[in-house]
Specification:
Layout: E1 2-10, H1 18-37, E2 45-49, H2 52-55, H3 61-75, E3 82-88, H4 94-104, E4 109-117, E5 121-123, H5 124-137, E6 150-154, E7 174-180, H6 182-191, H7 195-223, E8 231-236, H8 249-256, H9 266-279, H10 298-305, H11 311-317, E9 324-331, H12 336-353, E10 357-364, E11 402-403
Parallel strand pairs: 1-2, 2-3, 3-4, 4-6, 7-8, 9-10
Antiparallel strand pairs: 1-7, 4-5, 5-11, 6-10
Helix pairs in contact: 1-7, 4-5, 5-12, 6-7, 6-8, 7-9
């Protein structure tokens, strides 16, 4: 298991408060060393801000780009490898159109955009705007790689440490941990002699590491004496993978007994693993569930390449676990009108189930469904471009309304 990120949440102000950013860098640098000394590899330190429209309400194009560039220029020498400037918000759609330009003007800046939330409901215009961002970003890189830096958000609260979903609310700083821990599930299930033992093995592994990580985090919170002590938000113990078979959540599915991820039985495996994580006791934040990014998981990429695992399968599994649709390779000629129904399904699912979900869809220029991907990136496993079973929306769903979806009240159901 590794720490994928120590994510520091901040309101950096505009113009930027360089003193507060320096304090953030000093805190994260010291905390990072403490985790390393304790035996954990820390892959990155990341900085997440309040939503950029709140800092620059005028949404002046040049000013928003200047903000992102300045923040990147100041934060990187302070030890922050990646920066997230928060989401565009449905109350002003102008912000959505700025995201492709911001990402094109920076190197390590991530952004997101809200499709649905408890306050806004599901916004059809925001869903469509997110689809337009994805289409616009696709040709910025020959491999469609620019979409790695963008996520459409559905029901995602502040404080989730995984990028691109990370953002902050308020003025008080905070930090949280995102872990890469699919290997814990693989090991727990491989060693078990029964399903009950497999689940208990995973709970024990999560709780052991979480206790150790939390103790270190709380120690550094107490040791901060600068008057801006950041709150420890918790650990996002989503079982994030790495593209090796032994570090794959897809492998964990198959060690439970699913012959191949994507076949029937996979939904049950997803539900069992997610429920097992829920039973572990630790200070949690973010998604704390299953993370099923096709291109970041060796077994998922293999099954998708074999045609066993589809986009609809991934959406189905999101109903019982997961973070949504992540690093999904799609045909390069996919239009915004084709992306919109996929995003709408995800947004509706998140609101109806009252859970956070994201979409990071990656149309690959020049590729069609079934073509092999050719990423040269150590955090990706190559696969095949997935087919989209979709037609543009019509009628009322093609309109400009926002609508609320309430989680189902099971107590009101009457048994037959």
């Amino acid at each position: 298991m590794k720490i994928r990120s120590i994510t520091y949440f901040i309101n950096p102000k505009w113009p930027l408060d360089e003193g507060a950013l320096t304090q953030a860098g000093e805190f994260v640098g010291a905390a990072r060393l403490a985790f390393v000394v304790a035996g954990y590899e820390v892959q990155s330190a990341r900085l997440a801000t309040v939503p950029f429209p709140e800092l620059i309400p005028s949404l002046d194009r040049s000013e928003v780009i200047e903000f992102a560039q300045q923040l990147e220029r100041i934060a990187r020498p302070l030890g922050f490898e990646y920066i997230a400037i928060g989401p565009a918000l449905p109350d002003d759609l102008r912000a959505y159109a700025l995201i492709p330009e911001v990402l094109a003007a920076t190197e390590n800046v991530f952004a997101s955009a809200v499709m649905s939330s408890p306050s806004s409901g599901v916004s059809l215009p925001a869903v469509r705007a997110c689809a337009e961002i994805i289409q616009c970003l696709a040709p910025q890189d020959g491999n469609g790689f620019a979409n790695l830096y963008f996520a459409a958000l559905a029901n995602v609260s502040a404080g989730a440490p995984f990028f691109p979903a990370a953002y902050h609310m308020g003025d008080n700083p905070a930090f949280a941990l995102a872990v890469e821990s699919a290997d814990l599930a693989v090991e727990a299930f491989t060693q078990a002699k029964s399903l009950a033992e497999a689940r208990q093995n995973l709970i024990a592994a999560i709780e052991t590491h979480a206790a150790k990580l939390s103790n270190i985090a709380q120690k550094w919170t107490r040791r901060s004496a600068d008057g801006q002590t950041p709150l420890f938000g918790g650990i996002d113990f989503s079982l994030a993978p790495f593209p090796e078979e032994s570090l794959s959540l897809g492998t964990a599915f198959e060690r439970l007994g699913v012959p191949a991820v994507g076949l029937h039985g996979s939904l049950a495996a997803a539900a069992i693993i997610a429920d097992t994580i829920d039973k572990a006791e630790f200070k949690r934040t973010g998604f704390s569930g299953l993370m099923l990014p096709v291109l970041e998981d060796d077994t998922l990429a293999t099954r998708a390449g074999q045609g066993v695992l589809t986009l609809k399968d991934m959406l189905l599994y999101s109903a019982v676990c997961g973070t949504g649709l992540d690093t999904i390779p799609l045909p390069g000629d996919t239009t915004a009108d084709q992306l919109t129904p996929v995003l709408l399904d995800l947004a509706a699912l998140a609101r109806r189930l009252n859970k956070p979900l994201t979409a990071r869809l990656m149309p690959i220029p020049g590729k069609q469904a079934g073509d092999r991907t050719n990423f040269d990136f150590p955090f990706f496993a190559n696969s095949r471009v997935l087919a989209l079973d979709v037609e543009p929306l019509q009628g009322h769903l093609a309109g400009d309304e926002a609508f609320q979806l309430s989680p189902r009240n099971h107590h009101s159901l009457v048994s037959a």
